[in-house]
Amino acid sequence: MLLLVLSSIGEKAVRNSTKEFAQLTHLPIIPFTHLLDLMKGVKMKISYFPGCTLKTMAKNFEDSALASASSLGIEMVELQRWNCCGTVYSLTSDDLIHQLAPIRDLIRVEEQKDNRVVTLCSMCYNTLKRANKLVQEDKEKLDKLNDLMYREDVKYDGKVKVLHLLEILKNEIGFEQIARKVKIPLKGLKVAPYYGCLLLRPPEVGIDDPENPTILENLLESTGAEVIDYPYKTECCGSYNTVANVDLVVERAYNILRSAINQGAEAIVLSCPLCGFNLDNRQKEIKEKFSDFKNIPIFYFTQLLALSLGLDEKVCRFELNFVDPRPLLESKHLIGGV
Amino acid sequence: MEEKSIMEKIAEANKAVTKGVDEKEVEHWVTIYIMGKEYKVPAALTIMQAMEYAGYKFIRSCGCRAGFCGACSTVYRKKGEYKLRTAMACQTRVEDGMYLVQIPFAPAEKAIYDINKEQYDISVFFKYYPEITRCVSCNTCTKSCPQDLEVMDYVQAAIKGDFAAVAEGSFECIQCGLCAIRCPADIVQYHLAQLARRMYGRYGSPEEKNVKKRVEEIKKGKFDKEFDRVMSLSSDELKNLYTEQQRTREVY
Q1: Which residues, including other chains, have CB under 8 Å from residue B222's CB and lie 6 or more apart?
Q2: Measuring CA to CA, which residue among A211, A135, A207 is closest to residue A165?
Q3: What CA–CA distance (Å, rounded) separates B74 from B103?
Q4: Is the N-terminal amide bond of B146 cis, ω within 30° of 0?
Q5: Which one of A115, A130, A165 terminates a domain?
Q6: Do the Cβ atoms of B122 and A81 come within 8 Å?
Q7: CA–CA separation, A168 vs A18, rounded Å?
């Protein structure tokens, strides 16, 4: 394949004629600096919005994600400034104050001269994406928000694209490419993907089919794991009811986990720290309420990805998972002196 | 003796400005409204001086008169403007058409804790100031800060458990309380910041080796002689010494 390389310091006339030539010949054209990046093996740089939980409760998610992404050629650059995403997308139509947080974060992306931002937490993804959609479709609300944020140097224009890491893995790296990079196939590990709500609903912001998603299945298959199907993979875990209505969450989590276990799952894989808390940490209360229940490890998808890519086990931070997944991984000879 | 300017006289007085100022000397006047009542005051005055000129005597809402102590919080609007503004009365010049009131105190509960018994992680913030999670990033606190601190950013740093960022971001806070008065989420930013700075000082910031060394030196009596000398000086000698020191070196 022939590439045209555009230097930023050359003669203007030369650059213009290069552009014309590219148009005539339909040859791809890339800036010189990108070529340097390609030569160094850096394939992609993208602004990264962590969210509060990734910096506190879910360090295992963040560390394993950054390491996996980097090994796949994605450099996730944390925004220099960011605030809480707003936690929950506000459904009240005239309640604009709750849209300030997510839109301010999108301003931060533009301040970094980027037009894409990647998230890991499903909740942050959902909140940022829906707030973005709101202002993209309602200029009056966008103007009002910009007016309230008059101190910001950048006025938000609705042009940032909010992405989840899973989308980048699927669309820009490709699961086949990931499969080629797998060093330790997760052979014999029976995992059940759990989507919950926020990656899928509402459908206009979901990353996959809201009824029968397959993106996590496809990723896990590329790592060599055995994927278990079960009817509760898109069921709600009870979300923030975990604060005021623990019983409700315990019951829902029990049903989800039992369904997966009955289909033969040895572990659950997910992408949301709140789902993670409800399915992992709440196993303590599940056990107290349901005597037949046996603990099952809960993974962030990036922990298994990192493991399969042959990265240092330390980046997975398994010690932070509530139900220790290491005995299971050891029994499959995936960690501990393979 | 050389004729002193009005500002020099005001500065010298460090109290109600009416003393020693002849109104005939004042060229520029402005009209201000203190709690709704109209006053004509010299345009060169600060809000604090203008209120004193108008006859108010401060027993609260006044402290160092130098912008450091945070006691003289003021809220005001300007004629024809919808924005509610905030300032330190001792640091802000009066403007024509100002509607003024002092906020002598920001009502807020200050948590009591022993930093030696607290855990150095995010839980300490949620334990004493759980309302910080109500922050909606509206930035009203930052807009209200007379020190131009990025108040919202340090509250957000607390939610991420980043003690260093809270401590550094709030380092120049003078605890005037204007952020807390304006916050729609009822957060008490300046108390939170103090907790963070204390915890960071105790557990997070690297130990300063020179301080340790100096404390040892003091204990061993390295400066005893000098202390004795200074303690024996007369009031005038001390004043001269101080003036000389101010003149010869930068003091922080």
Answers
A1: none
A2: A207
A3: 6
A4: no
A5: A165
A6: no
A7: 31
pLDDT in tens, B144-185: 999 999 999 999 999 999 999 999 999 999 999 999 999 999
Give the contacts of A173 (CB within 8 A, at least 6 positions apart).
A72, A73, A74
A110 lies in which domain range? 44-165
- Chain B positions in Cβ-Cβ contact with residue A97 (cut-off 8 Å): 136, 138, 184
Dig out the tokens for B235 from the structure: 């009031």
Chain A residue with the nearest C-alpha to that of B142 = A151
Show Cβ contacts of residue A221 under 8 Å, excluding neighbours closer than 6 positions.
A175, A227
**Across B225-235, average pLDDT:** 95
Whole-angstrom distance, CA of residue A65 vs CA of residue A85: 19
Angle at which helix A100-111 crosses helix A122-137, to 10 degrees, equals 90
Chain A: residue whose CA lies nearest to B148: A151
Does residue A135 form part of some domain?
A: yes
CA distance B155 to chain A (A): 9
Length, in residues, of chain B = 252
Domains of chain A: total: 3
Residue B86: both structure tokens together: 């905030």
- Regarding pTM above 0.95, the answer is no
The answer on A259 and A318 residing in a single domain is yes
Q: Are residues A131 and A235 in the same domain?
A: no
Same domain? For A229 and A259 the reply is yes
**Cα–Cα distance between B212 and B223 in angstroms, integer?**
15
Residue A337 lies in a domain: no
Contacting residues for B117 by C-beta, under 8 A, at least 6 apart: none
Nearest to A84 among B122, B137, B162 (CB): B137
pLDDT tens, position by position, B200-214: 999 999 988 999 999
Q: How far is CA B162 from the centre of its chain?
A: 24
> What is the SS3 string spanning A160-211?
CEEEEHHHHHHHHHCHHHHHHHCCCCCCCCEEEECCCCCCCCCCCCCCCCCC
pLDDT of residue B16: 46
Strand pairing class (B29-34; B98-102) = parallel
Angle in degrees, 0-180, between the axes of helices A215-222 and A301-308, rounded to the nearest 10: 20
Inter-chain CB proximity A97 and B162 less than 8 Å = no
The answer to whether A233 and A191 are in contact (CB under 8 A) is no
Angle formed by the axes of helices B189-199 and B151-159, nearest 10°: 60
Bridge partner residues of B98 (DSSP)? B32, B78
Mean pLDDT for A25-37 is 59
pLDDT at A229 (0 to 100): 97
Query: Looking at the structure, do residues B10 and B94 belong to the same domain, yes or no?
Result: yes
B210: closest CA of chain A, how far (Å): 33
Q: Which domain holds residue B86?
A: 6-102
Query: Euclidean distance between the first and final Cα of chain B, in Å?
Result: 33
* pLDDT at A38 > cutoff 90: no
- Minimum-distance CB partner of A100 among B138, B143, B159: B138
Task: Write down the pLDDT at residue A337.
Answer: 65
**Alpha-carbon distance B101 to B70, whole Å?**
15
Neighbouring C-beta atoms of residue A129, cutoff 10 Å: 24
∠ Cα A167 A32 A173 (to 5°): 20
Q: Which domain CATH number covers B156?
A: 1.10.1060.10
Task: Give the C-alpha separation, B207 to A291, whole Å.
Answer: 51
